[in-house]
Amino acid sequence: MTTRIAYADLVSLLIRIFLRHGCSDEVAVLLATNMAGAERDGAHSHGIFRLKGNLASLDTGWVDGKATPVLEDVAPAMLRADGRNGFSLPVMERARPRVIDKVRANGIAMLSVRKAHHFSALWPDIEPFARAGFIALGMVNSMASVVPHGGRHKLYGTNPMGLAVPRRDADPLVFDQASSAMANGDVQLAAREGRQLPPGYGIDRDGQPTTDPRAVLDGGALLPFGGHKGSSIAMMMEIMGAGLAGSDYSFEIDWSAYPGAATPHGGQTYIVIDPNRGAPLDFAARFEVLIDAIRDAGQERLPADRRYANRRDSTKNGIPVAAKALDEIRRLAEA
């Protein structure tokens, strides 16, 4: 059975929970608004489903909920950030205005982030840049859970990449996608709900193909999407996410001493472009030509359309949440 809760009310409950588990006021607000926003938009694998793991990361000391990030201005169009073993959201909150200033001055800017636990999906990090009129590309690596093409054991993270593009008189086009056949959160959801995975998505601890999500999670691994092509993209995310930022590669992340922790502190790199400086013609008009052609080809739904539809419905009618899950959130907020 599901019930509905207003976005502001869910944020309020989550803030209280994060405060109780050692977050500063600023961090608690950022985590709560991000998590509630994912739930509002129907991104359930990155919404309240992640709460238990996030709290374990805090409670075990794996992540510092009060960390203050440090920004380093290293070049006219480059910014570097040290998350100081905190979450990534405070880094993005502090870095975004400075990145935008650099884009306006130079037409392009890059932000690399190390020692920050990436929180939630990648699209919330890049959508604000598109709403400010810029194209944004995000690249992140995470904990090892994917076997490379032709390999025998997990090496890469699910390693997502994302793109956000502004549109004229419309919501931005925004997507992120894992370089694995499926996001790790979706595997966890399938295990919790007793669903099987599609064939070709994972292997068990012996390297044999499996559709059992628990076998993938218990010593097994996900496969990259598209065979060697997805494996190459996963490698690129290791280079652009971890290598460029000076952070841990996915196979170097070891949280075995922190039982239940679930937030990887890999690396992140964001490249932001002013399309009005980079394109010789009216970019917004040219982009709509592509959008029209995509629709004419028969693709009815663009990336992020479903999220935006869920966002409108949840804003008007409240966020649908399983009654049992909402009861648990209220219990945690009042504990």
Can you put this structure into words, describing what you see?
With 335 residues, the protein is of the alpha+beta class. The protein folds into two domains: 1-59 and 304-335, Malate/L-lactate/L-sulpholactate dehydrogenase, four-helix barrel (Hypothetical Oxidoreductase Yiak, Chain: A, domain 1); 68-180 and 224-301, Malate/L-lactate/L-sulpholactate dehydrogenase, NADPH binding domain (Ribosomal Protein S8, Chain: A, domain 1, 2-Layer Sandwich), CATH 3.30.1370.60. It is built from twelve helices and twelve strands. The protein has helices at 7-20, 25-40, 51-59, 88-106, 123-131, 184-193, 213-217, 228-245, 275-278, 283-296, 305-317, 323-334; strands at 2-5, 70-75, 78-87, 108-117, 135-140, 161-167, 170-177, 202-203, 209-210, 221-222, 268-273, 319-322. The strands form three sheets. Strands 2-3-4-11-5-6-7 form a seven-stranded mixed beta sheet, sandwiched between helices. The two termini are 24 Å apart. 46% of the residues are buried. The model has no long low-confidence stretch (mean pLDDT 95).
How are the elements arranged and paired?
Layout: E1 2-5, H1 7-20, H2 25-40, H3 51-59, E2 70-75, E3 78-87, H4 88-106, E4 108-117, H5 123-131, E5 135-140, E6 161-167, E7 170-177, H6 184-193, E8 202-203, E9 209-210, H7 213-217, E10 221-222, H8 228-245, E11 268-273, H9 275-278, H10 283-296, H11 305-317, E12 319-322, H12 323-334
Parallel strand pairs: 3-4
Antiparallel strand pairs: 1-12, 2-3, 4-11, 5-6, 5-11, 6-7, 8-9, 8-10
Helix pairs in contact: 1-2, 1-12
